[in-house]
């Protein structure tokens, strides 16, 4: 009996650790919190300092040594080297050195030595073939110039590229290409476009960090050839004067996360995109004083084969302050948002205007601008809209009345709906 009492006391003294919630942190250097996730989520490695619980299966609690990374859309993206770290393994060409003294090399062969960072990067890219990789270990500035990446090449930046503003152009571009990969990139500066794409297929972007002082983060051009099968990992953008990510003309888009802070326009703007799956869109002080939103669908986004069958899937939208939270406009639709967490938006928390087959399955709105269904005369009125929300501290309004509109509301928000 005495032994059983001691055993019970010892068992009671063993600490129990809570599981991290969906989208919560679950790992990283110095992390002392939970390292497992709630049911239905897995701990997805982002970098050495941060892992996060995402929906789905990602092959372990912290897959830092895997060679592929599972996205929330269920596909996989290649990572760099043997253990998924920038510059690891055996890159085919490298750029090393520091300001005023750069070296591009392929094995024992020197491709460039000198003071020009852009010339070193260009020499390294020109020194590899399709299916090969350049690792830029050095940091430096390319000024108001452009780095072009051709088909099949992997370009990763383990240092930091500082860029200038080249009107109408990207600091890094890939156009009319297949199989380009940028698994790692950190960028600073004030670009016109940080990254510019069109006419691409099987494009893969991994961990992209842009700490900008203006310009736009990532742009898929409007009036150029369309793109297909684009996969994007985690994009973090701060300080952009325009959008963090603006897309046009993509069929087949997968994004893990878009995290935008102090961005002038949208965190994620989808236009004429079909068959898309996005994990998290998270905006703080995004689109303040504008008609933009943390997440915006526009210009017939989601219109597929002449209709609006559901083909745009968003797991979660988080928005704090700034302008709108979620905005659907101009004959867009075919979209499902699983949950939203919107608070203190300076404009509409949610605005759905001339959209078709849009569902928000759950979540909360706290304060800020109203939740609104509206319509302009140049497009048909809203149709087939389903909204399940808790709304507190702001109003819900439907004007004019749409067709087949379903509301499932809770909370103290005043309601003026049809």
Please tell me about this protein's structure.
- By secondary structure, the chain is mainly beta.
- The protein folds into 3 domains: 2-64, no CATH class; 80-247, no CATH class; 265-418, no CATH class.
- It has 2 helices and 33 strands.
- The strands form 4 sheets. It has a 23-stranded parallel sheet that branches. Strands 8-7-6-9-12 form a 5-stranded mixed sheet, with helices on one face. Strands 1-3-2 form a 3-stranded antiparallel sheet, with no helix packed on it.
- A hairpin with a 2-residue loop joins strand 2 (41-47) and strand 3 (50-55).
- The longest helix is centred in the N-terminal third of the chain and has 12 residues, at 2-13.
- Residues 10-16 and 59-79 have low confidence and may be disordered.
Write the layout of secondary structure elements.
Blueprint: H1 2-13, E1 25-27, E2 41-47, E3 50-55, E4 68-70, E5 76-78, E6 93-98, E7 101-106, E8 109-114, H2 117-126, E9 133-136, E10 140-143, E11 147-148, E12 154-157, E13 161-163, E14 170-175, E15 181-189, E16 193-198, E17 201-212, E18 216-220, E19 227-238, E20 245-263, E21 268-286, E22 293-298, E23 312-320, E24 324-328, E25 332-343, E26 350-353, E27 355-360, E28 363-366, E29 371-374, E30 383-392, E31 396-398, E32 403-410, E33 415-416
Parallel strand pairs: 6-9, 9-12, 10-13, 11-14, 13-15, 14-16, 15-17, 16-18, 17-19, 18-20, 19-20, 20-21, 21-22, 21-23, 22-24, 23-25, 24-26, 25-27, 25-28, 26-29, 27-30, 28-30, 29-31, 30-32, 31-33
Antiparallel strand pairs: 1-3, 2-3, 4-5, 6-7, 7-8
């Amino acid at each position: 009996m005495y032994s059983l009492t001691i055993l019970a006391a010892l068992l009671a003294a063993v600490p129990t650790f809570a599981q991290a919630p969906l989208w919560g942190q679950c790992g990283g250097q110095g992390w002392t919190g939970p390292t497992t996730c709630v049911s239905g989520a897995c701990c997805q490695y982002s970098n050495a300092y941060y892992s996060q619980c995402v929906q789905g299966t990602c092959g372990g609690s912290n897959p830092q040594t895997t060679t592929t990374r599972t996205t929330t859309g269920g596909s996989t993206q290649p990572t760099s080297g043997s253990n998924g770290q920038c510059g690891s393994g055996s890159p085919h060409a490298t750029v090393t050195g520091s300001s005023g003294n750069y070296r591009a090399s392929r094995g024992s062969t020197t491709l460039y030595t000198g003071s020009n960072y852009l010339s070193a990067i260009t020499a390294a890219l020109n020194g590899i073939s399709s299916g090969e990789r350049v690792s830029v270990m050095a940091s430096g500035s390319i000024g108001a110039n452009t780095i072009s990446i051709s088909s099949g090449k992997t370009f990763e930046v383990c240092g930091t590229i500082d860029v200038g503003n080249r009107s109408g152009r990207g600091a890094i571009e890939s156009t009319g290409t297949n199989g380009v990969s940028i698994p790692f990139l950190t960028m600073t500066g004030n670009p016109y476009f940080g990254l510019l794409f069109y006419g691409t297929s099987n494009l893969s972007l991994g961990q992209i960090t842009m700490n900008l002082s203006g310009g736009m983060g990532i742009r898929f051009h409007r009036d150029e050839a369309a793109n297909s099968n684009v996969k994007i990992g985690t994009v973090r953008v701060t300080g952009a004067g325009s959008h963090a990510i603006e897309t046009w003309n993509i069929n087949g888009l997968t994004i893990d996360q878009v995290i935008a802070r102090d961005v002038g326009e949208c965190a994620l703007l989808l236009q004429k995109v079909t068959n898309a799956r996005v994990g998290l869109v998270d905006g703080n002080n995004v689109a303040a004083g504008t008609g933009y939103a943390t997440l915006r669908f526009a210009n017939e986004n989601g219109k597929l084969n002449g209709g609006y069958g559901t083909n745009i899937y968003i797991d979660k939208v988080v928005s704090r302050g700034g302008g709108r939270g979620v905005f659907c406009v101009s004959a867009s639709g075919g979209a499902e948002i699983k949950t939203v967490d919107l608070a203190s938006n300076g404009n509409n928390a949610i605005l759905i205007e001339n959209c078709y087959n849009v569902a928000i399955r759950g979540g909360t709105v706290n304060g800020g601008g109203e939740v609104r269904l509206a319509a302009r005369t140049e497009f048909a009125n809203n149709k087939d809209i389903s909204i399940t929300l808790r709304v507190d501290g702001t109003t819900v309004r439907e004007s004019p009345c749409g067709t087949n509109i379903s509301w499932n509301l809770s909370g103290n928000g005043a309601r003026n709906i049809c």
